[in-house]
Amino acid sequence: MSDGTKMSRRQFMKASALAGGGLLLACHLPFGALDAFAAGDAVFAPNAFLRIGTDNSVTIIVNKSEMGQGVYTSLPMLVAEELCCDWKRVTFQASPVAPEYNHAQFGPIMVTGGSTSVRSEWSRLSLAGAAAREMLITAAANEWRVKPGACRAENGIVLGPGGMQISFGKIAAKAAKLPVPKEPKLKSGAKILLGRPFHRLDSPAKINGKAVFGIDVTAPGMLTAVIARPPVFGGQVKSFDASRALAVTGVKQVVAVDAGVAVVADGFWPAQKGRELLDIIWDEGPGGQVSTTLMHEEYARLSATPGLVARKDGDAPTVLSQAKKRFDVEYEVPYLAHATMEPLNCFVDMKQESCLVRTGSQFQTVDRNAAARVAGLKPEQVVFETTFLGGGFGRRACTGSDFVVEAAQVAKAVMQPVKVIRSREDDMRAGYYRPMWYDRIAACLDDKGMPLAWHHRIVGQSIIAGTPFESGMVKDGIDDTSVEGASTTLYDIPNLQVELHSPKNAVPVLWWRSVGHSHTAFVMESFLDELAHAAGKDPYQYRRQLLAKHPRTMKVLEIAAKKGGWGKPLPAGHGRGIAVHESFGSYIAQVAEVSLDVQGNIKVHRVVCAVDCGRIVNPDTIKAQMESGIVFGLSAALHGAITLKDGRVEQGNFDSYPLVRMAAAPRIEVHIIASSEPPGGVGEPGVPPIAPAVANALFAATGARLRSLPMTPDKIRAAVNRG
Amino acid sequence: MIVFNVNGKERRVDVSPDTPLLWVLREKLGLNGSKFGCGEGLCGACTVHIDGYPQRSCITPVGDVQGKKVVTIEGIPENHPLKKAWLAQEVSQCGYCQPGQIMSAVALLDKKPKPTDADIDSAMSGNLCRCGTYGRIRRAIHAAGGKSAPKGGKEL
Fold first, then answer.
1. How far apart are the first and last CA of chain A?
2. What structural domains and CATH numbers belong to chain A?
3. Chain A contact set for B136 (CB, 8 A)
4. In DSSP terms, which residues pair with A701 in a beta bridge?
5. Mean local confidence (pLDDT), B41-68
6. A525: part of which helix (H) or strand (E)?
7. What is the DSSP string of A468-508?
8. Is the confidence at residue B156, as pLDDT, over 70?
């Protein structure tokens, strides 16, 4: 079962049929019916999230996508803690798409995102485990004719007075006949699982090559398709001649879809070969004029004009107009690709009355509904199965469902099982990037050197405008994801104004691991560092002074500084930088130690990270996510840039869009703050602080201040020469 | 007809000889452990051993492996010290690149049972990991280093 998601469909279809079309509505069923559909497999299914078999097996159904963040382990731990089962008997299954599995906070959709998996499911899954435990205990107590209060559960066994005991598996069928408690009580006392490091349940399948990712999905008679896409965004097919492509052995059909021209073959290679032989005339439309150089100029112009006000404390413009000395800076960051290691792909088997989609998605309900629209079916007629995701980072929660829609259109044209695979170049050039941003800030200091006014204008595309989420997520023209991290700064600055311009253009944009924070933390934490140096103060102490009202932020800052050896001597040419940022309910500080080689390449030697993410489930997962966020953020800080010229994306593969490799990966040390605060996220918040920590360390080492990402050798050399 | 040995078994495939080995393994032989990441030998997700050397199967025409011995992740025994170390160090996150990482690491240890950090840098820098598991990969290789490795070549 730990191979992943393969088992789920058969079982759920069976469950669904017997439950009269609903999905695992066990809690609304007469429990006798369960034995029938469980077929000797699971006899106890008190709710949508867990099943217990007569063999003591415990299956936890997980409604979050596993894309590396460890939810196939941390969410089962939440259930198992309250269930008091034997952890060694726990396996996981990916949930189907059904209302029971919708996000607990984001409304009626199933989605994995916003670093919310643990924190949004904590209560629901704890209660699911507790309810099952109470039923098992009551069933055993009834057998023994004792009071349930005289019994307890431990490690998969119900223990009664006088040494009586019975395993969960043996009592499960009887427990299934009891009513589900409406208000189950959570355990008191010490936690058995939570807070201790446990091995991931999905690791064995992943190191044996047995884990099924979307790209591994196959079916009898399945075809494989690749799509020739327009060279610019918004371009369309004017006409095409497929005769040469169709002559390639293995090519079966060539069909036009909205995304371009699809070559359908009996394998990836013939499809790819066929695509190269397509003769297509494109209508580029205005997309051919898009250029990031021109956009940069437009953004710079816009930043000189007032935008919509996202936060206003005091009166920054007036204070600045009266200041004796002010600091005016511009910061900029480029478009970024998610570049998941597994290129986007999607399997669809469409029939007249049904449709099966199997893919690695973070956005199941949205994607399923999109497939249904293409198919002309009702959403309930589409079975949507989630595989393992070879990385997500937001790309697989696409507001336009692009990779699902194109596969559904190809499937509709061929009416045979088909998998559309994007080559790396397709994946990198077909859009949905972290937006390019341009920031202009003016600030002045009080007579003690502390920030008195901070006037910040942010220019960049909204990732929400123009999507179905606009009405709920854009308020008075302000998309919070554009300004988060700046408008929400915890620094105590009496006159603070944050404004936003949201220009529109043809380049598709999307959330990218840590969303707005991926840019605002770099800007805020770099410029604050500049002000500290301008005031002649230590950047660490400067931050402490501004965070007096925020003990959690203060604490991570202090731990990172202490463990990172702040103020201690360094080898010649090395520098230390510090940054702290709150995002997704977690507080993180990082200290980076860097040096520069003769070519101007930054070497990051060591990163020390302190994190307060509230109550924790699996500490090793938290460490892993911090390490992951730091390396991910470092790739962007040092290398990442998607640029467009004449409408064409200039990058295509890992030669032109490099990522950090083994030799460049820093030593990373993670310190988790013990906390009883509500849980925060961990998948994303490790990313934002690393770029400014490195930029600040570069300044400490060389005196060069980089206000533009990525920090490439040419920019660094220019900044060093400027002095 | 191209004949070669995969994980100890003779295999015959009737495909165009320019087809990359990766797609033959995945689509014709049902061995999905080797992954497609870049198609240009830049990311290492498709790494397999050909006559004992780590190679990028996405840019290796299957015609070139005629008569050769290919070992994939499925052919590395489960009790291999590296696989055990990978579990002990909890390396995998999304897991997509890990088969390729392990194949590169197995080849490194075959050649150099106790590698230095510099050896690891040079042997492993062809394998990208977007989840940033490099530190754990390094620890796992050190942990497995020097332990006797059972030979690969058998189907699991």
1. 60
2. 8-198 (3.30.365.10), 214-284+344-421 (3.30.365.10), 293-335+433-722 (3.30.365.10)
3. 624, 627
4. none
5. 98
6. helix A517-534
7. TTHHHHEETTEEHHHHTTTTT--S--SEEEEEEE----SS-
8. no
**Residue finishing a domain among B75, B107, B129:** B75
Residue B14, amino acid: D
Chain B residue numbers touching A387 (CB-CB < 8 A): none
Q: What residue ranges of chain A have pLDDT lower than 50?
A: 1-40
- List the one residue out of A711, A709, A715, A721 whose CA is nearest residue A335: A709
Q: In terms of Cα–Cα distance, which of A570, A571, A581 is closest to A610?
A: A581
pLDDT at res. A23: 24
Which residues in chain A are closer than 8 Å to B125, comparing Cβ atoms? Answer: 661-663
**Cis peptide bond upstream of B150, omega within 30:** no
B125 touching A, CB under 8 A?
A: yes
**Per-residue DSSP letter, A215:** G
Cβ atoms of A700 and A575 closer than 8 Å: yes
Share of chain A above pLDDT 90, in %: 92
The parent domain of residue B71 ranges over 2-75
pLDDT value for A581: 98
The alpha carbon of residue A558 is apart from the nearest alpha carbon of chain B, in Å, by: 25
Does B59 lie in the same domain as B36? yes
**Nearest neighbour of B96 by CB, restricted to A268, A342, A634:** A342
Please state, for a pLDDT cut of 90, what percent of chain B lies above it. Answer: 93
Give tens-digit pLDDT for B103-116.
999 999 999 999 99
Q: How many independent structural domains does chain B possess?
A: 2
What CA–CA distance (Å, rounded) separates A590 from A585? 17
User: How far does A687 lie from chain B, in Å, by closest CA?
Assistant: 11
The span from the CA of A388 to the CA of A587, in Å, is: 29
Q: Which chain B residue shows the shortest CA-CA distance from A218?
A: B27
User: Which chain B positions have a beta carbon within 8 Å of A654's beta carbon?
Assistant: 38, 40, 42-43, 128
Do the Cβ atoms of B95 and A206 come within 8 Å? yes
